[in-house]
Predict the 3D structure of the following.
Amino acid sequence: MPLESYLLLGAAVFAIGLFGALSKKSAILILLSVELMLNAVNINLIAFSNFITPLTMKGQIFSIFVIVVAACEVGLGLAIVLMLYRRRQTLEVDKYNLLKG
């Protein structure tokens, strides 16, 4: 497959994740959309690494680093979401106004 196919796939996955992050009201769905965007970045990293420098594994190693950071982000994000749910009894982000004024 040519490089353009991988880049189009990454762009489509990123666009779906961006749409989900901007349009959803549930905090869980927003976190899932952010994960989808990070996976799109990983697709592009690996595609560029495979086509530009096929003998080195720099893109794959950096992609593993992004996956580790994303796993940490999910853990912290879910902890924050659980804490907010216990206090407000809702996961809709429109209902949270803790930082106003």
